[in-house]
């Protein structure tokens, strides 16, 4: 290991590859094994177990979040207002006092001037949204109503609740188990450690907010370098399975949900394989912000990987916190992270949705794509073309634009909207604020959105024609 600059580390990439006989496997004692199994079961049930709920199949995590936001929206509104204000106030105190106030360390809340101003702007906007002040156009369902009543409420609840269970899962062996088993796939295809599979899984079954929380946690503990983080945040912070279902239902295509989801999975995978190999991701330095903890260089049979995965998981459980300690720390970290990003999401997201709803910007930007969409054989090209670019503001907006179009157009946009991943009502500002030490910048995200769209448009057009040829549209 060598130090390149203060607080930054790199590691030697040419490491000896170990076989199973070279590894000091941890003893499988009853207590740590049970500790790991219970933690794994808690996380698996909460995030993965399909259960019927109000006529739909969902997971306990979604039920908990939906119950809280649905049963007590006023309380969630007060909580959201308080946490946005707290984030802005504490950030201001940290920025004006060099990270310390009355002996309290506030360095966690220090940020760049831009994000300081965005958090303060969030403090000013939050009361306007909560009390429904100002002009009516701020509060329509597609602008302020979407941002405040849906996205801010959801993210504000998802992160701290999800952080409780994901921290138990991660800190008591789940990360090591999933990461070790996924290593033969993640490293050659996506150039990231096997443990990145957990971040992606958390996004698929829960929320990109939870996935990004996992990424931040592992990054701060030396498990990822900056290029890993850039890759995961922009290629694996995926739309949840539940939201794909919402998109399908909105377009009255719920019967095609398995096909839409399968197409989405293929598209996200192909985009990741391509984009990790080109700038800006490929040129991001492999620097750590904490003492590096890279995965053990290992090769072996599937059985060897399973033995190593169990050993690493049990070792982590044996050395890790108690269930209560992990839950408490996860909740506190989740609240801190929520206060850090919620004001930014509100400020940037409201501006993005207002721009989309009240200006012809995206209609103009979409015009050059009309002949492209038409040439690819997708009907209603005049409507579909703007939908291919407006997704940068909010993933749900393209779906609303094509609700009255032909089935092929609906299928095309349904898959495209959830596969573009980068949008500035939530993911964009969240990633930039959470990972300003990588750094991930606005031009990078716009470039990646464009690159994803260039890859996705012909790919999804081909899939759409295949599904149509099978007589399913």
Protein described:
The structure is a single chain. This protein is mainly alpha-helical and 473 residues long. It has one domain (29-466). 66% of the residues lie in helices and 4% in strands. It contains 19 helices and six strands. The chain has helices spanning 30-48, 60-71, 73-96, 113-130, 144-190, 196-205, 208-220, 226-235, 241-250, 257-275, 302-319, 323-358, 361-366, 370-375, 381-390, 397-401, 407-419, 427-434, 442-469, and strands at residues 2-5, 8-10, 51-53, 56-58, 100-101, 104-105. The strands form three sheets. The chain has a two-stranded antiparallel ribbon with strand order 1-2. It has a two-stranded antiparallel sheet with strand order 3-4. A hairpin with a 2-residue loop joins β5 and β6 (104-105). 48% of the residues are buried. It comes from Halobaculum roseum. InterPro entries: Gate_dom (IPR011642). This is YjiH family protein.
């Amino acid at each position: 290991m060598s130090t390149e600059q203060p607080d930054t580390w790199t590691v030697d990439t040419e490491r000896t590859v170990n076989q199973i006989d070279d590894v000091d496997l941890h003893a499988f004692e009853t207590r740590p094994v049970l500790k790991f199994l219970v933690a794994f079961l808690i996380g698996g049930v909460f995030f993965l177990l399909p259960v019927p709920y109000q006529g739909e199949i969902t997971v306990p995590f979604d039920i908990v979040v939906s119950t809280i936001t649905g049963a007590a929206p006023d309380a969630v509104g007060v909580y959201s207002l308080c946490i946005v204000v707290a984030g802005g106030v504490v950030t201001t105190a940290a920025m004006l006092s060099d990270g310390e106030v009355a002996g309290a360390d506030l360095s966690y809340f220090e940020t760049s001037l831009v994000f300081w101003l965005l958090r303060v702007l969030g403090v000013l906007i939050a009361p306007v949204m909560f009390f429904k002040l100002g002009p009516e156009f701020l509060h329509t369902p597609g602008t302020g109503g979407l941002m405040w009543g849906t996205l801010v409420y959801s993210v504000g609840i998802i992160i701290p609740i999800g952080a409780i269970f994901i921290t138990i899962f991660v800190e008591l062996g789940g990360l090591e188990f999933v990461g070790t088993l996924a290593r033969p796939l993640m490293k050659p295809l996506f150039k990231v450690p096997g443990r990145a599979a957990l971040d992606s899984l958390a996004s698929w079954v829960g929320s990109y907010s939870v996935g990004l929380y996992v990424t931040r946690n592992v990054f701060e503990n030396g498990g990822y370098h900056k290029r890993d983080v850039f890759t995961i945040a922009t290629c694996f912070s995926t739309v949840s399975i539940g939201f794909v279902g919402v998109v399908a239902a909105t377009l009255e295509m719920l019967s095609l949900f398995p096909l839409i989801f399968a197409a989405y999975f293929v598209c996200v995978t192909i985009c990741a394989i391509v984009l990790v190999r080109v700038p800006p991701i490929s040129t991001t330095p492999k620097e750590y912000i904490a003492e590096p903890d890279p995965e053990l260089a290992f090769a072996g049979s599937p059985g060897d990987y399973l033995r190593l995965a169990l050993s690493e998981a049990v070792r982590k459980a044996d050395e890790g916190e108690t269930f209560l300690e992990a839950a408490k720390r996860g909740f506190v970290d989740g609240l801190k992270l929520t206060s850090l990003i919620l004001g930014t999401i509100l400020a940037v997201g409201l501006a993005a949705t207002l721009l989309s709803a009240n200006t012809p910007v995206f209609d103009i930007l979409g015009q050059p794509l009309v002949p492209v969409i038409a040439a690819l054989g997708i009907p209603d090209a005049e409507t579909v073309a703007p939908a291919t670019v407006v997704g940068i503001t909010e993933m749900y907006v393209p779906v609303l634009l094509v609700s009255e179009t032909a089935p092929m157009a609906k299928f095309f946009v349904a898959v495209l909207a959830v596969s573009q991943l980068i949008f500035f009502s939530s993911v964009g500002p969240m990633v930039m604020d959470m990972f300003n030490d990588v750094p991930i910048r606005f031009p990078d995200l716009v470039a990646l959105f464009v690159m994803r769209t260039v890859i996705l448009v012909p790919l999804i057009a081909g899939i759409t024609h295949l599904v149509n040829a099978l007589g399913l549209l």
